[in-house]
Amino acid sequence: MKRFFYAIALALCAVLAACGGGGSDGGGAMGLSPAPLAVPAQTNASGYPGDPSSCSVADQRGWLNDYMMDKYFWNANLGIANSAATSLDTYFDSLLFVPIDRYSYSEEVAQFTQFFAEGTRTGFGYSLAFADAAQTRLLVRTVEAAGPAAAAGLQRGDTVLSINGLSPAQIANGELASVNTVGVTRTFSLANASGTARLLTMTSRNFALASVVTDKIFNSASGAKVGYLAYQEFSPSSVGALGEVFNRFRAGGVTELIVDLRYNSGGSVVVARALASWIGGAALDGKVFAKLRFNAKNTDSDFDYNFTASPSTLPSPPLEGIARVFFITSPNTASASELVINALAPFKNVINIGAATFGKPYGFLPRQACNTVYSAVNFETFNAADVGRYTSGLPATCSVADDLSKALGDPTERRTAAALGFIQTSTCPAVTAGLQANSRPDQLNRSQIAINSIANKRWKEPAFGEVSAPAMVID
């Protein structure tokens, strides 16, 4: 069976694949390209640690039980299997250690490979958020540059009056179906900042992700050159674009850095290490980026993953002279994003602007069985100072509300302005009004944020449209 997973590097691949079988289902070096591994010898009736004996429901369930008892981080606290489950996703959910595990999820192979192998998405390319706690104003939060929503003219900050005739209240109630197939038409009734109404029609399709939203260099009053990067997802396809950004920062003489991860819910550990290494500089080469720690049955898979400045693994040189780094964060800043922030904390002065992050110090080695990829938590992470377990999130240094009225990278946008102000004064601004960045709308029907039932439980801000589950994946 062909596998679609990737290794951090040959050394890490060897460590993870050699201990118990089936841990890392991919091979290859830092090229981030698929490479199949041989299927381990089958030792159980279910076929585990190889593939399920067949793709019948019974054999897949048996295989999943064996896999979870071996590789799941909380394997000593498995849930009671729901024999009456009507789908494999529901059966998988029943095995999770709840409420502690609000992270693990399953998805079809096509969905997994679309992000990690192809760097694409199917849909419209937008997300929305309420601008007030009373949920009366629904605004466009993000628009993917290459998606049909952007092509139709949708813009961040547009007020949504209705979508396909559904009101914001109906959308919040889950009455607008999520879309992950091509050819679906959607009509938006909108008003811009000046109140001008317009109608936009768009049709879902496949489009390339633009993980690097924007990058700029600001001139501060003190004369410092401030690099700004808005980065949306840790997609393997974004490595080249990130390298080009840091080339521009280096050529521009950047000495202060703002990294906007407010909507970045995670992705590849490989790319997370690359971003942190670009920020960290050559002095961090070989120092611990993250310590990966597995369950008690798999401690021989424990591994320290290091920063790199090697030209063979980092496609452009790191940025030097960055003593402090500003991260713009929110409850949607999750997983691999948090990994980067935590990894740099022992070595740099880290200042978080916005709101506390999601709280996911765990990661996956995704495993395919038949047509399903199971991203069950396999390990937890710590930084070089052994700091981890930030399940309540990484706190904000300065609490600043989101500002949907301005584009990302606009120096007058509230969170960006707060970071620029801190560079000048080393103080936080007064608490701002606006979108409640710390809101946790458990009252919302989150079916509209559907990836699957487990993924829905993890979102802590009102967000609709197309969002992806927070992930930290060894690829």
Give a written overview of the molecule.
A hairpin with a 5-residue loop joins β11 and β12. The strands form seven sheets. Strands 9-8-7-6-5-24 form a six-stranded antiparallel beta sheet. α7 (about 240-250) packs parallel to α8 and α8 packs parallel to α9. The relative contact order is 0.15. It has about 475 residues and is of the alpha/beta class. The two termini are about 20 Å apart. The chain is built from eleven helices and 25 strands. It has helices at about 10-15, 55-70, 90-95, 110-120, 150, 170, 240-250, 270-280, 335-345, 415-425, 455, and strands at about 5, 25, 105-110, 120-125, 125-130, 140-145, 160-165, 185-190, 195-205, 205-210, 210-220, 225-230, 255-260, 265-270, 290-295, 305, 325-330, 350-355, 360-365, 365-370, 370-375, 375-380, 400, 465, 470-475. Helices cover about 20% and strands about 25% of the residues.
Please list the strands of the largest sheet in the order they lie side by side.
Answer: 9-8-7-6-5-24
Rg (C-alpha, Å): 22 Å
Given the structure, what is the number of helices? Answer: 11
Can you tell me the overall shape? globular
Q: Terminal Cα separation, in Å? A: 18 Å
Give the helix/strand class.
alpha/beta
Indicate the topology:
Layout lengths: L4 E2 L3 H8 L8 E2 L29 H15 L16 H7 L10 E4 H10 L1 E4 L2 E5 L7 E6 L4 H5 L6 E5 L4 H5 L12 E7 L5 E7 L1 E4 L3 E8 L5 E7 L7 H13 L4 E5 L5 E3 H12 L7 E7 L8 E4 L17 E6 L6 H9 L4 E6 L7 E3 L2 E3 L2 E4 L1 E6 L15 E2 L14 H12 L27 H4 L7 E2 L5 E3 L2
